[in-house]
Amino acid sequence: MVELQYEIKNGVFKAHINPDNDLSDISEVCNIVEEHSEVVLIGIDLYKCSYIQSKFLAGLVAVKKLAMVRKINIELLNVCDNIIQVLQSTNLQKLFVIKDDFASYPLDALFERFLDTDKAGTVSEYLAANYDDNIQNKLIELIDGGNPLLVEYAILTMGRAQDYQNLEIYRKALNANEASVKSAAILVLGWIGDTQSKEQLYSYLASKEIGISEAAAASIALLSDDTDSEKLAKYLHDSDIRIRLVAIYALSLINDEKAFEYLSNAMNEEKDEAVRIQLTKKIALFKDERVGRILLGLLDDNSIQLREAAASGLSRRGSGEFTSILVEKIGDNDNWVGFFAAKSLAGIEDENIIKKIESYYDKVEQNVKLAIIEVLGKCKGVDPSFLLSKLDDTNEDIRKEALNSLSLMHGPVALTAAIKLFNKDESWLVRYKAVNIILEQKPVGYDNLLRARLKDETNKYILEHIIGEIGE
Amino acid sequence: MLLSSIKINDQEFVELKDVIYRNSGIMFAENKKYLLENRLSKRLADLNFTTFKDYIYYLKYDIKKRQELDTLINLVTINETYFLRERGQLDYLVSNIVPDLIKAGKKSIKIWSAPCSTGEEPYSIAILLKNAGLFDKASIDIIATDINSEVVALAKKGEYRQASFRGVPADFMRNFDVQGQSYFIKDEIKRHVRFNTGNITTPTITSLIGKVDVIFCRNVLIYFDMDGKQRTIKNFHNMLTEPGYLCLGHSETLNKISEDFTMKNAGTCIIYMKKK
After folding, report:
1. Does domain A289-382 have CATH number 3.30.565.10?
2. Is pLDDT above 90 for A10?
């Protein structure tokens, strides 16, 4: 028998489960949590377990019930695929939030995660946040080992930790054969502010490896002084489209007045569609007051993709002084321009403009209708009757979006509608949204309302959602 | 590496994972949310979208929605792998399974790698079989299938980077031609592997591939829900000859999925055998 290992820190109870722990140990979790009123989160760490006994599952359910009674959260940490499969097959997975907790991992196991490109970034961030001499030494060992995947993330981790001490390692890695290692070194030199390397980084802008050229652009931007916009602007006239695109990227990251001038001038001269689209997207990221007018002018461009990029840029900036023009653009022949134009109108308070927006509804495609409904939820003083009328629409997304917009501006009206649709709507998307609104507003007896639905509900996502909330 | 990921909220996650599930059989569990964010953020940015909801509407209402659905499935089904991964089963195939089948009088042997991703697994099998001289003793057909048309195209091309070789022995590299940073699989290996596109969860896969003697299906069942796992394993059972061998990933099991196989502990690995 192995004694249950646990700790309580800052209101978090964490039990480190061993495969030999049995039902009595998990019962002990309940006893300990009951004794400690300060516990607000229970973590069950299964890092050491590649399997769990069925009795242990029963114990986990008991802990979940206790958590429900105490109204505290419970998380299963570091659950291996085998155990996830057992939880799935017993329909218990939905009861628990499942998370990684790297604090339980030995360093070598964390480094192995560098080989998983989807996880490597998160692990690297964790290691950088907890950086110490031990981690530093191990990372240097990895770099010496030469496995390019490990070397790449070792360098990135050291850079994230702002490790200036090993500057020579990063500089040396610029000569690596593997593109990913070279990119990592370039990025890190930018992060740690190594201005001495800047001239060398310019040589990588023309690299055939997109990762290298983008990394160089990002680092040059980080290391830039007053002279760099001008230097980069020369690349805007290069005959190679790829280099022009990288220069646009770098100038957008520098994001100063000079960079804006160069990019807006390039917009007037550039002929290639792909480059013009990129210029549009990047110009939209500048705060300069001229940006809105430039983007507005591009809404009449011949290129559909460019018009959409301009409209998207405007939607992120908000309509501002161009409100009346953007209202007209809702009816644009290109429905994605209409979509973004509608979205740019969030925050409008003028009743006449709101009526005008609503008037487009019957004349536009479904995606634009959805954007109109969405934006009405973000305007002030909208009469709910327009949105209420859409709750009977034949399109499930329209009903869902209308319900959402109602919830943003008319809580009680939305709740009544949500309760009705939760029980009657044929679309699970709408019912799922209704559950969310009920859970947000938590009216008296909401748990019984949700529980009552369990016997008739057929959609697995909604069942999981409700069960996860009420713990049945 | 440079792009910060766009966050997906709960409603968007459930809607998108349903789209993916209906079109691929792959079910993204809650703890794989990060994977969708990582893999799709660039695509959203390319399409000018800042939220996953807008992207979901694009998948539903754009004129090119069918094409975009293929792009989506390709982006989320890339399964990173490398040569000689989980080598125990590969060695057991070469030293036990194939010789046993030949001894039992089999003249023609079919090995199926599914999903094959970018081809490292089927080419590893081909290299090991060739090194063992087994292609001279029977007609061995290696079929490799993946749902992702882009990775199948890459596999057919047979071009790899150093990241695909993790701790492989030096002599293994003799099977590749090196050009700059690329390693090209030699034609003498390539010709033993036939690639195709298909979904292993659908019943039509059985007619696409036919009967096989050995199936490698590693590190993919974890992405299916229980129903998807059961359908897939049922397909495998129907496709396998007798004796039929099934190799799963080291962290995968048929426990609670199927009782139609017996588990064989082969020392360094686990192999499932079709029950008679």
Report:
1. no
2. yes
Domain hosting residue B56, numbered range: 10-76
Report pLDDT for B163.
82
Tally Cβ neighbours within 10 Å of residue A217: 29
ipTM value: 0.89
Asked whether residue B95 falls in the same domain as residue B71, the answer is: no
Q: What are the residue boundaries of the structural domains of chain A, listed by start?
A: 5-104, 289-382, 404-472
Shortest alpha-carbon distance between residue A35 and chain B (Å): 31
**Same domain membership, residue B205 and residue B101:** yes
Summarize pLDDT for A277-304 with one digit per residue, the tens: 999 999 999 999 999 999 999 999 999 9
**Nearest 5°: phi and psi at B217?**
-135, 85
The residue out of B51, B76, B101 marking a domain boundary is B76
* Arithmetic mean of pLDDT over chain B: 93
**CB distance B222–A81 less than 8 Å?**
yes
The pair of structure tokens assigned to A455 is 């016997």
Rounded CA gap, B80 and B167, in Å?
A: 16
Q: For residue range B100-138, what is the model confidence (pLDDT) as tens digits?
A: 999 999 999 999 999 999 999 999 999 999 999 999 999
Residue type, A32: I
pLDDT higher than threshold 70 for residue A362: yes
Distance CA A376, CA B12 (A): 20
CA distance A445 to A464: 20
Please indicate whether, in this complex, the C-beta atoms of A218 and B256 are within 8 angstroms of each other: no
CATH number, domain containing residue B71: 1.10.155.10
Task: Give the Cα separation of A179 and B181 in Å (integer).
Answer: 9
Amino acid at site A87? L
B174 with B268, same domain: the answer is: yes
Buried b (16+ CB within 10 A) or exposed e, A272-295: eeebbbbbbbbbbebebeebbebb
Domain end, chosen from B39, B56, B76, is at B76
Residue B1: the pLDDT is 45
How crowded is residue A191: how many other Cβ atoms within 10 Å of its Cβ? 20
CATH code given to domain A5-104: 3.30.750.24
CATH code of the domain in which B134 resides:
3.40.50.150
**Closest residue to A81, CB basis, from B54, B58, B251:** B251
Same domain, B51 and B179: no
Residue A119 banded pLDDT, cuts 50, 70, 90? confident
A434: Cβ contacts below 8 Å, ≥ 6 apart: A403, A417, A418, A419, A421, A422, A425
Q: Are residues B108 and B14 in the same domain?
A: no
Please enumerate in sequence order all residues whose Cβ is within 8 A of that of B139, keeping only pairs 6 or more positions apart, or say none: B107, B108, B109
Angle formed at CA A215 by CA A213 and CA A221, multiple of 5 degrees: 105
Output the 3-class SS for A63-126: HHHHHHHHCCEEEEECCCHHHHHHHHHCCCHHHCEEECCHHHCCHHHHHHHHHCHHHHHHHHHH
Residues B231 and B261 in one domain: yes
To test the contact with chain A by mutation, choose from B33, B39, B48, B164 the residue with the greatest count of A C-beta atoms within 10 A, namely B48
Question: pLDDT > 90: what percent of chain A?
Answer: 80
Q: Give yes or no for B49 touching A (CB within 8 A).
A: yes
Average pLDDT, chain A: 93
Point out the residue among A148, A308, A365 whose CB comes nearest to the CB of B162.
A148
Separation CA B121–CA B247 (nearest Å): 12
B198 and B236 fall within a common domain? yes
The answer on B112 and B201 residing in a single domain is yes
Residue B81 lies in a domain: no
Q: Is residue B2 part of a domain?
A: no
Interstrand relation of B212-217 and B240-248 (parallel, antiparallel or unpaired) = parallel
Sites in chain B below the pLDDT cut of 50: 1
Mean pLDDT of A159-171: 97
